[in-house]
Amino acid sequence: MSVLAEHHRADGTPGRRRLVRGALTAAVALGAGLAAGGGSEGAASRAGPHGPRPGTPEAALRELSAGNARWRTFHERHPDATRTVRQALVGGQHPFAVILGCVDSRVPPELVFDQGLGDLMTVRSAGEVLDDAVLGSIAFGVVELAIPLVVVLGHQSCGAVTAAVRAAGGLEQLPGHLRYLAEQIRPAVDRSLGRDARVDAAVTQNVRLVRSRLAAEPDLAARIATGKLAVVGARYELTSQRVHRIR
Ligand SMILES: [Zn+2]
Q1: What's the total number of domains in the chain?
Q2: For FRET with 122, which of 93, 190, 194, 236 sits at 20 to 30 Å CA-CA?
Q3: pTM over 0.85
């Protein structure tokens, strides 16, 4: 999917605020950051009390990419947290992306994508491990709220992945529910690699496997087939604070 190929178009939801996004060129350039590893500083405008709302997978990716560019260059806007927005949100929510991320305290989605109230539906589990509650939560966002984008967000130096690597190598006996997490991550572990490379590669491969499983979920697959939804993998680097796409 190319985020560069398609222009933003307003969604068709009646009553939803539709404002033409400014600085489209800058936003498209930033879209490349999440999509292809490039990117530069700049941002799409976010005029109005709570809009505009990205209505397509490509527009949602551009918004996240612009927000991460603000975050990593210390130009955060902390949008959508004003008194007006809080009141506007009493009547309902129209988040534009689901972020399935790790529980790690260093990777809060609203911060690393510089988003605010009502913008992201966040689902977090250690190592982005899927279970019925996680799948149901994501399906709620996609099916009930018509969210056009799901991002599986892994991260550098993930403790859950590290524990899974150690357990897979027989170095550690994990208790109870931690063992469940490690078993879920284990298929991403390549034991032919050295230890540090093994953890880093497992972070990336785990994102790929989780993304593939999600994309195969019938409710999601049907929407992907019609272009209404994209499920993408991405990684957050603690060292650079940059989010980049995993393919
Ligand atoms: Zn983690």
Answers
A1: 1
A2: 190
A3: no
